[in-house]
Design a protein that fits this description.
The protein has 162 residues and is of the alpha/beta class. Helix content is 33%, strand content 21%. It has helices spanning 26-31, 42-49, 58-67, 97-103, 115-125, 147-157; strands at residues 3-5, 17-21, 70-74, 76-81, 89-94, 109-113, 132-135. The strands form two sheets. It has a four-stranded parallel sheet with strand order 3-2-6-7. A three-stranded antiparallel sheet has the order 1-4-5. α2 (42-49) packs across α6 (147-157).
Length: 162
């Protein structure tokens, strides 16, 4: 088993909402891209919320995130994990979320992408005063919700109403 590491945060001084996942999965690590698995609905959901057509070019997706005052990172800096399953993560080391929030004081809301991100966030960062809300995992592993249900929940988490 190898120790897996998160990516650098995708953020700038204009970012207002920080979206925190748990740790990149196998395909994301292979491609060195946030939410790279073809069946992960993250990018489709976010583009749909902002009323735009999904761009296949990763650099454009990153620009899209920043242009909409969003930021991406992970709660976990590293962990040992078999495959991509969040429930298989052990020996977790958290990212310096508090330090990031100090460096980027315009962040006003945190959206936690999935139950593992939520659990680890509250484990390590429960003292933070910025509102943190759960959104269902965009991963294909969460098959209990269809795309429209995920879209609705994410729309609420990002403060776009129902």
């Amino acid at each position: 088993m190898n120790r897996e590491h998160s990516f650098s945060p995708l953020i700038d001084s204009q970012s207002r909402i920080l979206i925190l996942g748990s740790l990149p999965g196998v395909e994301s690590l292979r491609q060195q891209q946030y939410y790279a698995h073809s069946r992960n609905s993250f990018w489709r959901v976010v583009y749909a919320i902002y009323g735009d057509n999904l761009d296949e070019e990763y650099s454009h997706r990153c620009e899209f995130i920043l242009s909409n005052k969003l930021a991406l990172w992970d709660v976990c800096s590293s962990a040992i994990r078999i495959g991509s399953a969040d429930d298989k993560m052990v020996d977790i080391e958290p990212n310096d979320v508090m330090g990031l929030l100090i460096d980027y004081p315009n962040i006003r809301r945190i959206v936690l992408n999935g139950r593992k991100a939520e659990k680890e966030y509250h484990r390590y960062f429960s003292e933070l005063s910025i509102p943190a809300v759960y959104a269902p995992s965009a991963s294909p592993a969460l098959a209990a919700l269809n795309f429209d249900e995920k879209l609705s929940a994410w729309r609420k988490a990002l403060c776009f109403g129902g």
